[in-house]
## 1
Amino acid sequence: MTRARRGKKLDLDPATVRRARTLARRAGRPIVRIAQTHTTMSVERAVLRMAGVAGADADGIPWVNRLVDAVRADVGLERGVAMPVWDAMARGSHDDLTALAQRASSGSVTFRIPEGREADRARRAARRDAGRGIAAIDRRRVERERLIRRVGDAPRQPWIYLIVATGDIHEDIPQAQAAAREGADVIAVIRSTGQSLLDYVPEGATREGYAGTYATQENFRLMRAALDEVSRELGRYVRLTNYASGLCMPEIATLAGLERLDMMLNDSMYGILFRDINPIRTFVDQRFSRQVHARAGIIINTGEDNYLTTADAVDEAHTVTVSQLLNEYFAKEAGLADWQLGLGHAFEINPEVPDSFRLELAHAMLARELFPAAPLKWMPPTKHMTGDVFRGYLLDGFFNLVGAMTGQGILLVGMMTEAVVTPFLSDRDLALQNVRYVLSAAGNLHEDFHPQPGGFIQSRAHLVLDEAVALLERIAAEPGPAPLLAAIGDGTFGLMKRPADRGKGYDGVFRQADDYYNPVTELLEVGHHA
Amino acid sequence: MREMTGKQIVRPYGDTTGDGMVQVSFTLPIGHDKRAEGAALQLARKMGIDPAMVVHAKQMGPHFTFFVVYGSVSHLVDVSAVQVLEREYPLLSAKEVNVAVKTRLRRKLVVLGACIGTDAHTVGIDAILNIKGFAGEKGLEYYRELKVVNLGAQVLVPELVARARAEKADAVLVSQVVTQRDAHLQNTREMSAAFRESYPAGRTPLLVVGGPRFDEHAARELGVDRIFGRGTTPREVASYLTHALTTKETR
């Protein structure tokens, strides 16, 4: 079965598909220009993390936050932190950047914008230190590739994706190892619910979290080491997933690269629409984090499932397609390759709707055919899961069947106790039996399955694509220099209106001055021109 | 059926009246062998299931076994002794709500909604407030005489109180889904305390919380006026608000 043959099943009009991509590019390009001309607190902190600043003060506030705040107070952030920080390094006698950060936070360092030869000196040093971080990320990528060659890869697609979320990294580790032994190819550690709105990355190994475990560099390191151990034991590389979203997305992306995480949740608009994070903050942070992911060989997972949990999965099916097209444009512009695009979609149609399974199949096939080379991420039902766990188990079986029939790359395992309790050990075991049964019984069904030309499934897919194109046209017709921002501001996506000058984290957004300098962006963009 | 004493005794129903049949499943932290099945039967008996049958036992990893048990429970249930919170207000249509608000309040009834604390699950509050609604009923935004302000997810309590004052909210609806470490109870207590502190006594807006894991009887204990549990529809909420806010003596 080749991807090319799969592409014929829906008989999509190539001109319409081209039109959809053109419109997505037209909507995305002004946003990229905004991202190229702004910076954020978190991008600047990520630069420092890339250059090796680590640790936190006695209150748990990371030194990168302290250092960026000190620079901002002295000279602002419109030129970036790099020039003032490495100028201060050259002028003072600090052991390293972390020592500088410590002194700066006690007020004993004064920052300035260097000029002339001093500027050249600062720029060279910044590039050298940032380059070391990028080289470390490159080494981790090579290490991953070598491990996959040596211990072996997941035996099949879709990769089976399981979640652990105890709040305590030391509880997560045995759970994640057990899940891997039971068959998980990917382990996702859900973050503590509040983390996306924290404007700093917590430090160290953490044991307290709400509905999830904090994403910290140390937690990343501990979990990756535990999964390396179990990967060797099982003879297949078990991938680790976390979340590059929220106010610290660029920093978390950087830490993920440094600690060899394999996949990251990373959606272009999720933070805006669902977390009320400022749109510009999000797009700037997004672009940086995607550039890091591209370099680190990390697969991103986008969050289209969220659209369907807040809106009707039939009426709003086209918003998933629109979001996938935008995510694709932004991802490729940032340097990600097709194999790194885990574009999301979900099985969320009300099971009471007649033909709901055929509709699900049509939507999943549309995603598959629009993005033939992307490892799509297929998300299980949540909205229509009730306390009736038996019915939920059946629904998850149908979800798995759509996954098997449409060649999904990543399958998030549905739990019958969704919306009831955190899954029991037995729930996870039953859920994996469900997946295994369906994949073994019907995993090759796609070879025989060809929807009737002009039939229900084809017509539905064509309709959703047409609606997606119509929505993209409506976005393109919005007023102003960045129609997508206007569309987000007037509530085009769901009922949520998110104006560009509001939302969380807006006070951490800065327009770049003409002499803005960011050594990480400079190095990541070498040899890549989208 | 109901007897002369007023007692109404029932037993679980499998396929025959009075057979008492139930089905349970659980996991014991031991590997699967004869002894493990015996342990499962012992647990079932202690739960009042006697005779019990282990119909399925499956080892999961080296240290756990999953059991499905069928059997008859000896316990009797007296339905007449069950206490439930009966709805103390009439269920109104959207039109009736609008008329009641217009004639009795003579202005729009202002409803402020939010998920507080770290809770990002807006599905509950959205189901009640968004026009889209829930269970075939349109949400509160659809009611012409209600002014709905939905603050969305992760709203801080001080922000909620400030917005309630600014909007002159008549009612504040808070949704809590995340229950880890009883976060829903802590957040609700914090919220009700903040309103009591910020408003003159007896002048706080009507405080309503909802979520799948609340005990509907715990309103007083949590310092709120009303708790709504799983499956509550927008119409029930609208009817309650109308009843509580347009009939003076209840407040």
## 2
Amino acid sequence: MIVIRCPHCQVERHEDELFYGGEALPPRPSDPLQLSDPEWTGRLFFRSNPEGAVIEDRCCAAGCGHWFRVRRCTASHAILDVAPPPAMPVPLPEFSS
Amino acid sequence: MRHSFLNLLRQGLSGHRGWPQAWRNPEPRRSYEAVIVGGGGHGLATAYYLAGEHGLTDVAVLERGWIGGGNTGRNTTNVRSDYMYPESAALYDLSLRVYEGLGRELDFNIMLSQRGWLFLIHDLHQMETARHKANWMQCNGIDGVIVDSAEARRMLPALNPAADARYPVIGAFPQRRGGTIRHDAVAWGYARAADRLGVDIIQNCAVEGLVMNGGCVTAVQISRGTIGCGRMGVAAAAWTARVTAMAGFPLPMTSHILQAMVTEPVRRCLDHVVISPATGAYVNQTRKGELVIGGIMDLYQSFSQRGTYPSIEKVVAAVVEMFPAFSSLKLMRHWAGVVDITPDRSPIIGPSPVPNLHLNCGCGTGGFKAIPAGGLLLAHAVATGRQHALAEAFGLERFRLNALVDEAAASGIAH
């Protein structure tokens, strides 16, 4: 079972208490036209999905309600790092067709 | 040797020692006209149809583990075609129709049991959705009717009879042609049939790299050396994206674990496959008497191939809520498979940005029931270089075009 200490409220929560927000993405642009169509395709549909360390968003849903970022190994489920969002920036996903 | 009654009798009398090896275990040749990556149901079916339907027998199937050791051996063996969108209905019903004659075609008993797939309806909203879907299915020419609460209870005597049940059953939506199949037999049957047509099945052979030339795949690197290939089909479920990354392009898929579990065997108590999307579990009884239980997919990305306790707890709670008597059974085994989920929950079939590389992946939680169709359509793409008419909606370009086949909502399943 995945157990993570929330970096905001410092309480340990298990996976059912942490809302999963998906693989982390860069902030959504305030103006949609800042991204090209291929960039939107990448942002909407493509994720890095590694067999190894991935950065994901989780929310301390049963506790303080704040979002944070987790670096987790998808093969072992080991938690490698936990931090509030600005501390773990991520690139925009690439796309193909 | 054919699996005939006479041969079964002869072998039975001689202690079953005379059966020949079902498929060869060949050393890979230096090159093949077509290489299929992935020795699960989809890859083996592709090789079988390449050889049988298209006459292309210079084919190798590369499997990193053993035949049927991935998702083909890790599912809950259910088959059905109760999809809503016409594109999906055509795909999955093709699969079911092929499955209906597959045992005879492959000379291998796949133990198809069309016991009926029963979708429980717990409230008026679900009833409305089910009626909508039933109308779509009739338009698509696929069987599916709604039965009332009394009929559902007649079909499922073990159903929670309490008037104040947390999830009261107000009706059900059976697809009578749905049911179960012996899952390993599908892999073994296709492997044996493909091998007889001259296909080389190479196990314990992971793809370590691709040799590209002029934008095309020309060879595959494996631990034992390099195998030349004229064209390639990749049907490696979640690991397909790893192969395409070697070819230089990503896929819109994420990997998650889907878990299942089985109880100790008991006498026959459940005739149908029952799914309750509201509670998030589905269950059927095997011929041995065990109850096979599946449930929700873990939402976060994982390649771990093993289960998690929160999901086991949710699934078991859901089944016990539906069938209180099952609470006295012990779980015997539990397992997880890695499913490849696309943004619209529909598979990716057909061409890729690499001209001689074709894809069949992204079946997600419905890969087992899609095996014959996946094999037929990928074989068509590899053999002809063109997309099959039934696969046109399922190409990789649909994400750029925003032309999704959005089964995330339409299939109405819990994951």
## 3
Amino acid sequence: MLVIHREICGYCGACVSVCPEGALELIDAYLEVDDNCISCGICTRACPLGALEVKDEE
Amino acid sequence: MRSEYDLLVIGGGPGGAIAAKTAAEKGLNVCLIEKRPAIGAPVRCAEGIGRELLEEFIEPDERWISSEIDGAKIIAPNGTALVLEPQMAGNEVGYILDRKVFDRELVWQAAEAGSDVMVKTRAISPLMKNGKVGGAHLEFCGIQRDVRAEVVIAADGVESKFARWCGIDTTIPYRELATCAQYLLTNIDIEPRTTIFYLGNRIAPEGYVWVFPKGERSANVGIGISPADCGPGQRPRDLLDAFVKSNLPTGRPIECVVGGVPVCEPLKSTVSDGLMIVGDAARVSDPLTGGGIYNAMFTGKLAAEVASECISRGDCSQKALEKYDSGWRDSRMGKALARNYRIKEFFIKLSDEKLNLLVESAAKINLKEFSTLTLIKELIVRNPSLLLELKSLRDSIR
């Protein structure tokens, strides 16, 4: 699943633009992930700060 | 705020503001909404714009101009500098803006022209009427309401959602989103009227580092790279820190800016029934330079003009609004986008050795009669080893 490290996130929205599922939305300073996220990890590469991470589900 | 307008503009950046202003001046009832609590902040921009391009829209004003620029330098990976003097820098002559103030001025002008303005107000979903966009469901501080409109202009930037909710695929191929970090750096020795661009696959893979002066001893120092080359320890912020450490060690940041810039081709279509898309949301930022302020204002103005015509004729179908789409594609701006996309595709494939060769030979060319094609022609003559690549570049932009 996609984990947002909110202490790192700069709420810039770069990730939103590359999400193929439209699962991310930037609401002012808060990045929201929708249920339809497929954990593809594309957003983790687009983030300028490294705030996004795909973790294996326990 | 009323419940019905002629035009609803989503997003209060330069594209949205110029759209709202233009439409209000044409007598439309307009509402502009901005999801953030303040216009102009946080900044997501390196703030550069060409002089003539800016002056097409607004008289320059010292209140929102941080620096006047009359020259540029391009630095090759080996340190060779290509200096573009004022008389040949062309588009490099211009300004570094203070976007926090500039954006407010533009929205202020929209308001003065008669547009309603709502901040901290976001669109949650489009209102659909017979399969056409007919407004938006909005939220303001927890209060939700419907606002109907003949036309909605989506000016919601790189993180745009509205067009996608209306069924348009706005996904940027991830290699083609420049991922960026920038400091407003103070306490540095710079040439206050010169912008500097550093190239190199080690410094900034598939991108560049910029130094854009903001006054005498400070500058926007930033980097944009392709996510394809990104990873832990190799993110824009890491590479920027490395650059600052070795090139501007006395610098102290007073602002940290991050963001993404579309360097892809524009959306296949920037209109649908009752909907128009402008600026970064339409992916019309320049794929070579990353500049987007002018293109946003240009598309915002054109969209509002076409919307006004279509509303007065009572036909806001996709077909009627197409005039906007073909209008910007056929414009000088649209053609520059297509050409610069191809030039970008050429540059991102070059090794550092080839970049060095090109900058070295370009530095020797008398650039008084500067044009992209004559430059490429000269480069072909001087670089037989790059013959094939340069010829295909030349042919692609003819």
## 4
Amino acid sequence: MRVEERPQHLPAALADDLDLIAEMTADFARSLDIEETLRLGLAHISSRMEAEAASIFLMEPGTGDLVCRACWGPSDVTGLRLPKGQGIVWRAVNRNATELVRDTTDDPDFAHQIDNNTGFITRSILCAPMAVRDERLGAIELFNKKGGGSFDADDRRVLQALAASAALALINARQAADMAEQKALKHELSLAADIQRAMLPPERPPEFPIHGINLPARGVSGDFFDVVELTNGKIAFAVADVSGKGMNAAMLMSKTASLFRCLAKRLDGPGAVLAAIDSELAETSSAGMFVTMIAGILDPATGTVVLANAGHEPPLLCCGASLTRIDEGMPPLGIVPDLFALGCPESAIELNGGALYLFTDGLTEAGSTDSMLGSDGVARMLAPHRIRPAPDRLRAVVAQVDEAGLALKDDLTMLVVEDMRNQPALNRQYQARPASLTLIRHDLGQILHQLGISGPVIPDIVLAVDEACQNVIRHAYGGGEGEMIVQVRGDHDHVDVRLIDFAPTIDPASVCPRDLNDVRPGGLGTHFIREVMDDVEFLAPPPGTGNLLRMGKRIGGHENRKP
Amino acid sequence: MKIESRERDGAVVVALVGEVDLQHSPTVRKHLMDLMFERRPVVVDMGSVEYIDSSGIASLVEAYQAARKNGTRFVLAAVSQPAMRVLQLARLDKVFALADTVEAGLSA
């Protein structure tokens, strides 16, 4: 920027000064590298202000020393370091005021040593500090007015203005750099979170006996769960919570997760796995960090779980109406070496058709501090969702904790281990909308086939269930949002399909098939259901649900069985 | 699912391809009713219907009724086995005009 026209009433010298300030301020504002701009601008400032030499000192982060970052004139002192308190520069910085030294011989603070080293003879000094609010950034220093005179009060005002504008530009540039760094850090954090998510086990079909969910409070998590299928048909699982939050917790979590993944397949029993992880962590973990962890093994054939608990929240066994806390356990892992030298005790639990819930304190301590959930609270939260298939049940409970999308205070992990021996062959939750019907028909066709059924009865049953789902979508929910659960039990002789929704309970009497002699669109669906299925009835809906329609079909005839 | 419509011998042959379910039957209904509004003779080629539900059948019933009122032709041709099963369940196999092939439907 250049100010072309000089207002008539300004004295020439003042106008020159204003030009200089305007030019430099524009350069600073444009600049992406303020230090470089200062270096280039220094020559300009010096010549316009008739100085024989000039330097710029910036405060070095960390040491707090003033270091010469640019200089102009006969001797080069770039890199010169002034420890706290030395010379006129430090005086200007400390007082945060421009120093005008007309004659250096009169000033006791003048550092003669530098002149002795460079051979330059300093007669007068003008030094303006660069500071924004309370943050001291450095100073601009001019030496010796050309022609033998001294700098004057006008020079002082000009340099002061230049220094103020340079300081603002420096601060802006630093903040921009900080922001870029934060952005890069955020990106790295999200990469770390990706890696962590990849360490979690894959989501399995809803009929699999163990499911987990993990919701990190920040990008990375100090919690983890894992599910590992063993070669003997049993399934190993674990839930753990690393003390602390943030990156260090996340890294210790990754280490613990890797150890579990590796040891679960090799060691015999969860007690041995926890003892081995403890000895590894106690040897190498950093001070003050520990891990609470439950490991277990489920035998799906018997519904028996063997558990070992190292300082973790007691799991909850839900069996019918009864709730049991499994309290036995050892201290957390990684605290003192040899704590688990004698092994870790295991307890055997019969699921008896029920489910075992493991969770981290992110669940029990969710919400405000005065309403900690505790395990009773967890049971209360579970109650309305027990009918849902496990993955949907976990999501529903977590959604309740994370209601209104409030930020979680802690990482939240929950795992459910179920006895699937008497569970439906198909147990899935779908969104109650037309687009779900293709998937429902596909899942149903597949499961009927797996039950040993074949032939034309399959499309008939699929049609009947599709029609029943349509009734839920169109009539029970009336086109609104909602979910429905399809359960299929049975064998090659008999199929029992249950359709459960969460809509308002409807009066079964209002659902009747149409008169077929009356040819008109609509009303056919219920007729199809009754025509295809042998018995169709509304049962008392389970707690938390709206309607339960049961449809039974006897598979008669040889053509409907697989050879 | 897909709806493929083409002119042939003064009629419109509408081929329904895939699954005619609650998600797609509104499109089928609109397509057929537009043709009924134009009083076009229609042969519905149902050879590639893999699945049809009550809402799909209802769309056909509505078009059939409009055609009757118009006095125009409305034939279901080459009905696939799964679609025929559903027509039978609805006892509509005796109501609709059916043809074994599209050609037969056009010359009916």
